Request: fold
Amino acid sequence: MKKFFITIFFSFICFNLYAAGDAAKPLKVDWSFNGLFGKFDRSQLQRGFQVYKEVCASCHSMQYLSYRNLGEKGGPEFSDAEVKAIAAGYQIKDGPNEEGEMFERAGLPKDKFKSPYPNEKAARAVNGGAYPPDMSVLVKARAGGANYIYSILMGYDENPPANLKLEDGVYYNKYMPGNKIKMAKPLNEGSVEYADGTKATVSQMSKDVTAFLTWSAEPHLEKRKRIGFKTIVYLLIFSILVFFSMKKIWSRIETKV
Amino acid sequence: MSETNYKPTSSFGKWFDERLPLLTLFNGHLMQYPTPKNLNYWWTFGGILTFCLMTQIITGIVLAMHYTAHADMAFSSVEHIMRDVNYGWLIRYIHANGASMFFLAVYIHIFRALFYGSYKSPREVIWILGIFIYILMMAAAFMGYVLPWGQMSFWGATVITNLFSAIPLVGESITQWLWGGYSVDNPTLTRFFSLHYLIPFLILGLVVLHIWALHVPGNNNPVGIDLKKDGSDTVPFHPYIVIKDLFALVIFMIIFAGFVFYAPNVLGHSDNYIPADPLITPAHIVPEWYLLPFYAILRSVPDKLGGVILMFSAILILAALPWLDTSKVRSAVFRPIYKQFFWILVLDVLILGYIGAMPAEGAYVAIGRVATVYYFAHFLIIMPVLGFVEKTKPVPLSIADPIISGSGNLAAAKKDKNLN
Reply:
């Protein structure tokens, strides 16, 4: 009886709300960062950054990331020279200088990712009233996480059901709640050309950019899992020591009972 | 608590203890304190809760060093903690999941008291202090959830503060006073931050009183009978209970670590990683899991004021429990009918929690209403009546002495003991 209730209780608190509406169940991907020892695939993160840079970044900001993050451990791990080159590819507004003027300069690793729009209103004006969300923590901000983001990117291909009316600038997406999305299909076969020779299929690019966004939402994921495993092993060994100490101490009085 | 014959060994210890008997206090209450020898693992949650409180205070102090309580900066300061502060992600995940673990432990602690009748005479004051602690915990958790200033923070704060507007005449003024303006905004955030920092220390003070009150009659125990005066039923707190509490704590920490390191966001809501936006209401506004049963009670009443009154009554009714429970036997072990009702209550609260997480529509509302009515019926009807009609099992005379008296309740058991 007790065990039954404890089981119910735990499954209850672990229960995750998923308000899917009329959207299809998201696709499941066997991500390299899943599981107890999950790690990112460096070259996948580098490819994912390329997809972000060449496709997503024209509408979506990533305001909590700095270029230096791209070279940090546990991420895409670009070399220092590569990070400097990536940052230098952007013109960053700085200032005021000693004359009190704002000026433009080449980006440095310390700079935050440059946003495509100066502010939210400008973004909405260009995108038919919709605001392309900042993607820094997007994976954590959606129920379903990486699988959901991947599914959205893969959800454009089917024809919409006949009874679904799509307004101008609204697109059908199989996995979006309500099946309507204001983002046009972002990735098409060959949207980017991978330097490492990987074939840029829609599925490949979607996986790569989703992995990149997962890292950006949780940049310390690898370290977290590594420390977590050590912590739990330590606690398990400690619990065994404490258990036998407890038995030994209680044996002093057990006999008297 | 009996007088101790403790004398510090070092000369400095003696000198200090004569001037401020702290060592005597610690020796009496943390070492020699006589504890029933038959306590089971359900009794280890007091120590676990102390650990939870200290964990929340310590991680919270560190987080406050890096957090910015401002509507425009709170969200990004949390991201700063998660990305750039050394081990900031670890400290924040411990703090956020620590709140859930704190509530998990406190619910087990409360249900343990309900099962073994720990709230009954002479422990009413311990129980009521515990309820005050629980209420403060809920206030602290709610305000803490607002601080990251995500969508659920903002809309949760809006829903909960709006409850006060249901109060007749002064409701609106009170709500605006809580907000510090005409809606949830920066002044709300800064005052919530201030109070969120204050409340844990109030809880700490109440915990001291809770333990002080506990150490007057001593612990209840699974058998639920008074202990023999000669001390044959007890063991000193140290090392017997200390090592047992430590073992339970380490197991608890393993579960805690499982959440922190492998599922740090399952207990939270993904919408809280979207910055607060007063213009966009989330599809479903849900509180954290530990407040869901009360949320279900709130929503089971169509009238706003009625719902608010019922929700607060659901917590406050617990304070009257020592007088609503008319049974003379404490432990459910000897109360075969109460034992069944106890588990039904557990199930009822779980159902309420589930309903609280679901949208308020259709069958969910009906189930929520039935569960709400049952919740109150348990305390207002079942508990008082059961004490009179239930035939309890024979209660043993002492923990050490397993002789069972032939009589049906504790009073009779005591009488038998006097006859012997």
Remarks:
- The radius of gyration of chain B is 24 Å.
- Confidence is low (pLDDT under 50) at residues 405-420 of chain B.
- Chain B has two domains: 30-285, 287-389.
